[in-house]
């Protein structure tokens, strides 16, 4: 039986992290429910107190193909290296210096959005094609692959 997958990210500021990941993935921040012009309007109507309105946010693939990514506020900060991370395929079909140049372009774009560049791993064929380790604005690691 096929299952759908949602990726859930614990974070301090869902309202800030969701737009970063929407731009990173080519997704959009999930629109408010029908009948509401904004999430603020919807949450007000649902009786959610103002101090709880940044407890969650989500981004979705506008084509409906990729998984929803859900951001939930948690009280604790990130403690250690992620045990699970996303690999973003930023240079499909490319090899060698052409591949690494494309990864560098994407790394620069993401740094401008608030990411941090952590480490570059050079191509080591046949074992690895090279990748760049990044972190989102809250320090969650991911790779440009």
How would you describe the overall organization of this protein?
This protein is an alpha/beta fold. It has two domains: 6-73, Signal recognition particle alu RNA binding heterodimer, srp9/1; 86-144, no CATH class. 26% of the residues lie in helices and 26% in strands. The chain has three helices and eight strands. The strands form two sheets. The protein has a four-stranded mixed beta sheet with strand order 1-4-3-2, with helices on one face. The longest helix is centred in the last third of the chain and has 18 residues, at 96-113. The chain is elongated and about 55 Å long. The mean pLDDT is 94.
Low-confidence runs: none
Q: How many domains?
A: 2
CATH class of the largest domain: Alpha Beta
Shape: elongated
Portion in beta strands: 25-35%
Distance between the termini: 30 Å
Number of extended strands? 8
Radius of gyration: 17 Å
* Largest sheet strand order: 1-4-3-2
Largest sheet: 4 strands, mixed
Q: Looking at CATH, which topology of the largest domain would you report?
A: Signal recognition particle alu RNA binding heterodimer, srp9/1
Brief overview:
The chain has 145 residues and is of the alpha/beta class. The protein is built from three helices and eight strands; from the N terminus they run E-H-E-H-E-E-E-H-E-E-E. It folds into two domains: 6-73, Signal recognition particle alu RNA binding heterodimer, srp9/1, CATH 3.30.720; 86-144, no CATH class.
């Amino acid at each position: 039986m096929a299952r759908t997958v949602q990726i859930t990210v614990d974070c301090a500021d869902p309202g800030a992290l969701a737009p970063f990941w929407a731009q990173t993935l080519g997704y959009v921040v999930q629109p408010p429910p029908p009948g509401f012009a904004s999430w603020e309007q919807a949450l007000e109507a649902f009786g959610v107190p103002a101090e709880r309105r940044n407890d969650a946010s989500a981004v979705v693939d506008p084509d409906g193909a990729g998984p929803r990514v859900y951001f939930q506020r948690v009280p604790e900060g990130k403690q250690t290296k992620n045990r699970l991370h996303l690999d973003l395929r930023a240079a499909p079909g490319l090899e060698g210096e052409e591949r690494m140049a494309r990864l560098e372009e994407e790394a620069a774009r993401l740094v401008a959005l608030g990411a941090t560049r952590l480490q570059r791993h050079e191509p080591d064929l046949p074992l690895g094609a090279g990748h760049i380790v990044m972190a989102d604005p809250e320090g969650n690691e991911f790779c440009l692959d």
